[in-house]
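Sequence and structure are kept together here, with a separate record for every protein. A complete record is shown below as an example:
=====
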Amino acid sequence: MVLYLFLFCTDHSSNHFLLIYCILGQQSFHHYKIICKWWGCRQTQPIITTHGLFDNAGSFDTLLPLLNTKSVLCLDLPGHGLSSHFPDGLAIHFQQYLLVLRYIFTEYYKWNKVSLMCHSFGSSVGFAYAGFYPEHIDRMVNLDCGRFWTAGKMKTLVEDYRASTDGFNNDLESHNNGQGFSWEETISKLYEGRVRFGLPISRKSCEIIAKRGAVQYAENKYRFTHDKRLRYRSFGRCTTKLLSELAERISCDVLNISPSNGINIHYSSTNYDEWQDNMKKLNKGTNLIDVKVEGGHHVHLENPEIVAPFLNDFFKS
């Protein structure tokens, strides 16, 4: 798969468009777009944010006004928010996200180094990128990183791949074209889904996510914009052994913010212990700051005033 990106930029009040042209083989031609929000000065290299699974760039909306940073670029990752999905007929592969980030950073913008602010699944992607390309990451923030929760476990990997293969075959088309919902029903669906998943957020936060996570197609009728293939575990996820190797390669300054009711602690203390052990393997030259705060998985969205001071100190230093 070859990607060609073309950019059209606006400020955070509207959207920032990356048009991606994807060539599959010699004859198939598809194009799709990555849509982002650029906060602050566009003449200054921005901090890059990557969001969690089923979230979008809007999940940083309440936090960014509290930060003393000149420029932040929030991505809607492929298959999320207002961005296009990966082409129909393909399985979702973890490395596809690294490919997109690599092209944006080094091929289009030609940035030598970038700073990352990542949440949940986005932090898994950011962590892997920082491990594969340590010389190109200046500093990294992990907001309740889900890397060990999403990592491929050898004892379940075969069954995961079987389930994903069947799921991807059953859902060859990525879009959710089923029954639509009213705006109130859309918010309720988002709210109930996160409660069911064990990572609840308020209805107010659901409305923020829904601004980019649902699209209106008729009077008071909305459909979710996320790629329905995200329901299945992606291929190519890092194993815990690979994550350990990547941790030893990371050389940038790292700030980890771990909420008291976050994904690692909430789901498995073993995962959290693994995460702590692996973070200790970071390159000896790395400045690692580990902060524990009160809050849930979306503490940066729900209670941004709690995490903003730590972020301001980290980026100022």
